[in-house]
Write a structure and sequence with these properties.
The complex is a heterodimer of chains A (250) and B (81).
Chain A (H helix, E strand, L loop, with lengths): L2 H16 L1 H15 L3 E2 L2 H12 L6 E5 L6 H9 L2 H6 L18 H9 L11 H16 L3 E3 L20 H8 L4 E9 L14 E9 L7 H27 L5
Parallel strand pairs in A: 1-5, 2-3, 2-4
Antiparallel strand pairs in A: 4-5
Helix pairs in contact in A: 2-4, 8-9
Chain B lengths: L2 H12 L7 H5 L14 H15 L5 H5 L4 H11 L1
Helix pairs in contact in B: 1-3, 1-5
Classes of the chains: A alpha/beta (250), B mainly alpha (81).
Chain lengths: 250, 81
């Protein structure tokens, strides 16, 4: 990775860290009090996550299911407090939103910058994709957390898509030694299918697992194997979620 | 392997993944697999792996990243098969 990219990432990390209390608690206030969202069992989730990760301070790829446009914001809330992120800035996940979804509006671009987003161009020129992948590898290798939606897009059916998923997550796991994968299933009780925003007053329940997926294959085949394992684990977390919270809709 | 045989096999492999079949039917070798045929980028990986299985070759990541058109695909498989 070039010096310029390193410097850009360093600057973004520093600026985002300075603004962490403001960006985190503004988003939290909006979710908690304007939209009325609640995450059930949040403290137990964080405790259990800490226990499962143990002393692991290495690369962590956060791989959630994808149903709404604010899943990544909800997960930042779920994965830690503003104070925790201020004290442990590597734990504040880097997000990879599709560049076209950000539009041209300056406020959204600034918000994304402060919330550690690296815009990606899906199906873009290979050299652009290679540069983005290089930045992500650099972050992971430095012990940062990076969030990537393994399905690649919001699930139109409302269920984890075990057929049409992307292979980027598997590729990163292969390319950055020691990467663990945090599979997180997050869903509101009233979430039927995908949407821009969850319903007001929604209560979310979480399920998760920490994996260290490997494949006997290398290259593209290995990436596909690992991505499949991640998506299949998400699908099984989904089954567990429905069995627990919506047994009639399984 | 001759180019014509490679082209026929490559086309047959790509076809099920293409949302827009017109460039394939017109035999447009410069058609871009992602943009013109409407193949999803993740499915392009499946296509590359299908090439490996069909032609008994191994395509490294760097070469795979350079496969952008039907012509590129034919060139890669016919040079290695």
């Amino acid at each position: 990775m070039g010096h310029r990219d390193r410097l850009e990432l360093f600057l973004q990390r520093a600026v985002a860290w300075v603004f962490t209390p403001a960006s985190y608690y503004l988003a939290w206030f909006w979710m908690r009090f304007v939209r009325g969202y609640r995450i059930s069992g949040l403290r137990a989730f964080r405790d259990e996550l800490r226990r499962k990760l143990g002393s692991h301070r290495g690369p962590l790829l956060v791989c959630p299911n994808h149903l709404t446009a604010i899943d990544s914001v909800l997960l930042v809330w779920a994965l830690g407090s503003g104070l925790h992120y201020f004290q442990n800035d590597r734990d504040f996940v880097w997000n990879l939103p599709e560049r076209r979804n950000l539009g041209e509006g300056l406020p959204l671009r600034v918000a994304c910058y402060l919330c550690k987003c690296i815009p990606v161009l899906r199906q873009g020129p290979p050299e652009v994709t290679a540069r983005t992948m290089s930045k992500i590898r650099h972050l992971l290798a430095g012990g940062h957390r990076v969030m990537i939606f393994p399905e690649g897009t919001r699930s139109r059916s409302g269920r984890v898509d075990t057929q049409e998923f992307a292979y980027g997550a598997g590729r990163l796991v292969q390319e950055v030694p020691g990467t663990r994968v945090l599979c997180v299933y997050l869903r509101g009780l009233n979430q039927e299918a995908c949407s821009d925003l969850p319903r007001r007053g929604e209560t979310f329940h979480l399920g998760f697992d920490v994996l260290e997926p490997t494949s006997p294959n290398k290259g593209l085949r290995g990436s596909r194997d690992i991505s499949r394992r991640i998506v299949e684990r998400l699908a099984s977390l989904e089954e567990e979620w429905f069995a627990t919270h919506h047994p009639t809709r399984q | 392997m001759d180019q014509q045989t490679a082209l026929e096999k490559v086309t047959a492999i790509i076809k099920p993944y293409a949302k827009n079949l017109a460039p394939l039917e017109e035999g447009n070798l410069d058609a871009r697999i992602l943009e013109d045929l409407g193949v999803n980028s993740a499915r392009l990986v499946d296509i590359i792996l299908a090439f490996e299985d069909e032609f008994g070759i191994s395509i490294d990541d760097e070469t795979a990243d350079k496969v952008r058109t039907i012509n590129d695909a034919v060139r890669v498989v016919s040079s290695q098969a």
